[in-house]
Amino acid sequence: MPNKEDIALMSHLMRRAGFGATRDEVERLAEQGYEETVEQLINPTAPPVDEFLLWRYHPITEVPGGAADPGQANWLYQMVNTERPLEEKLALFWHHVFATGNAKVDNCNHLLEQIQIFRDIGMGNYRNLLVEIAKNPAMIFWLDNNENHRNAPNENWGRELLELFSLGVGNYTEKDVFECSRAFTGWTIGAKMPRFPYGRFPWTFEYRPEDHDFTEKTFLGHTGNFNGEDIIDIVVQQPACSKFIARHLYNFFVADEPQVPAWNIEEPRDPEAVETLRETFVSSGLEIKPVLRTMFNSDFFKESTYQKVKSPVEVVVGTLGLTGDLAGPDPRLEGMGKEPGYMGQAILDPPSVEGWHTGKEWINSGSLVKRVNFVADRVSNTELPGVKSIIKRVAESNGSAMTAEALVDQCLDLMGPIEMGEHTRRELLSHAESEGSISWATEEDYARSSRRVGDMLALIAATREYQFG
Amino acid sequence: METTTVAGRTWNFVKAIGRNAAAGNGFTQPTAVAIARDGSMYVLSRGQEGAGGVVAQNKRIGKITMDDELIGDFGRQEFTWPVGLAVSKDDKLYCSDEYGNFIAWYSADGERLGQWGEAGSKEGELSGPSGIAFDADDNLYVVDSLNDRVQKFTKDGNFITSWGGSGSGEGQLDRPWGVTVDKDGDVYVADWGNDRVQKFSGDGKPLLTFGGEPGQGGDLKRPSDVAVDSEGDVYVVDWGNKKVQIYDSEGNALAALYGDATEFSKWAKEVVESNPDVVKAYRRVKDRTPLGLFERPVGIAIDDEDRIIITESTRGRLQVYAKEKNYLEPQFNL
């Protein structure tokens, strides 16, 4: 049997490299070993989520068009039901970086296509990913590259490519932005059939040489007749680029950093860790998978337990997974897809191309109440399979009777394990003690004690500590 | 008019009906179609749930004619996951709800007359009832999808018999979906998860499999529905491959329909022509072929004149084909 430390570490890995795991799964993985689990995460062999099953029961989620709800439901369903958790988590990571929103794109079909690109090649070569994203119709429309013409350049895509997708502020000039934009003229979207009267038809990438600026450009010290891919080749060779991506990965997977626009004035909290990731990124030829391997096996990752405020997506998907709620098609799915948005993270609809502000900025008085209520509603529902499983473990942990302290400790262990601050722990204990002794001896006792476990789980969900993952 | 010709038969594309619309003369994810006794059609709009729970505003049953007349619609907010339609000899419309685990029935003018069904897996209980079809004696076959079986009831819901079981062996089923009954009383079931259609006798004896052997033509991917014409040819909605696969009665693949509705339906045309921007946008399109292709065909029905009606959930329309029998291919190079 794996020991307590192994369980804690594996839980940590699964929260960060996925959306958490049930205790049964954590025990199985801990038995298998940490490094082997990391390998399994970065080389998944389980089949992807069966989208046919989703589409059969929720046909609108295949082609949500401009409606955000069914698009969000589609992705939420995949996050909850995936057996390739890191692939899905990494798609969320890239969605943070290449933040593209339905508020403007008005086309979740293509936003979901972008997410699929992240699934398909998000662990591969970063240069190739940039090229694919530059050709992605949702991104082209989002950042106006369809308005970027030979005789009238539009700098939106060119600027964000440098500022938010690769280098960060301070590592290029206004002239570089202009030259970069000129190199992407003619990268556009082909005319498609309109949405009326039969719904959406797909956009396709189209390169129009007649609209491309073939004259010489000078970009980041290089001069030539550059096209878009040449620009990307120059960008990815910049030291600032590898540092930028390494810091993004650290921020998302290891510990909260300041918000991205501050990165040119604030040093990383752990420069050595970011440098380790950067070196791996460069030495592997800009492959993401080796960086993930280095990161998850590093001491700095293993020591980063509860250093991050959970994102709303992590709260929602993690809770659904823990409790076994929404496992499969369900009429509540479309409504559930909006839950992260109520907490400040509307998937497929970030507030701007800068993405979401993370860390402590996830928390405000409104979002905190939403987070706590969402989790508490589910963990206190003793009919949900995951909650039943937790109750069973608690019931079997200590014979037919247990102390209030054992109840609190068991619940904290199975919700994390979470290390609770002394004051909060005393509060939980005081509540548990106020309701008398706990017995599992008879059916009636079991039912009563089950409700007490549910109540305790809900109280834990309301603690400060539970907001960290 | 597009035609597909093979083995003395030809299928002519006739027309499209409908458009994407949450109300009025259109459909929202139409997933089933059934022919009324007077030749009009019922079209089931599966619709969507929406945020904040089951809204069900756009879930409905529309009644239309082959001449593009909208008679009306009914059933709004009466279903969670409506899925199958069938018409009894006395012209009542039956509709299954695979979430509510019931079968509701209506008069020909849309008055709800009642419902039956209990959730469960025991004999006569339902779990995810999807396709439904009447036999000549007005018994109702219900595809009891999550129980991987077919159950036969009287039209009032009294259990008669059942067969199936989970698995991929002969006679077993994996989340089956649509069903039909031919003129001999044999039952065809779209065995969705097993990528095949199985033909059974009326009491459940396995008789034939369609599309089960890959590489022999007519391969199926998650078939959703099936229908049989007056000559015994079998039409399978190959939902996963977005086509309708046609077999002869022995299970030999004959031809496939991929959708031909490059011309707008009457209702669609009204919408396009009322908006000059949409008209201009269509002019910019170089290739209109995708306009006609099936985009997630789901349900199928064949009327007394062997007209084949197919619902397309993504496009919110029907495509209609007509079978021409004893067709002789011109023996000269046209």
Secondary structure topology:
The complex is a heterodimer of chains A (469) and B (334).
Chain A: H1 4-17, H2 23-32, H3 34-42, H4 51-57, H5 68-81, H6 85-97, H7 102-105, H8 108-121, H9 126-134, H10 137-142, H11 156-163, H12 174-183, E1 187-189, E2 205-207, E3 217-219, E4 222-224, H13 228-236, H14 239-253, H15 271-283, H16 288-297, H17 299-302, H18 312-323, H19 333-336, H20 339-342, H21 365-379, H22 385-396, E5 401-402, H23 404-414, H24 422-434, E6 438-439, H25 443-461
Antiparallel strand pairs in A: 1-2, 3-4, 5-6
Chain B: E1 3-6, E2 9-17, E3 30-35, E4 41-45, E5 60-64, E6 70-74, E7 82-87, E8 93-97, E9 102-106, E10 112-116, E11 129-134, E12 139-144, E13 149-154, E14 159-164, E15 179-181, E16 187-191, E17 196-200, E18 206-210, E19 225-228, E20 234-238, E21 243-247, E22 253-257, H1 266-273, H2 276-284, H3 289-292, E23 297-302, E24 307-312, E25 317-324
Antiparallel strand pairs in B: 1-2, 2-25, 3-4, 4-5, 5-6, 7-8, 8-9, 9-10, 11-12, 12-13, 13-14, 15-16, 16-17, 17-18, 19-20, 20-21, 21-22, 23-24, 24-25
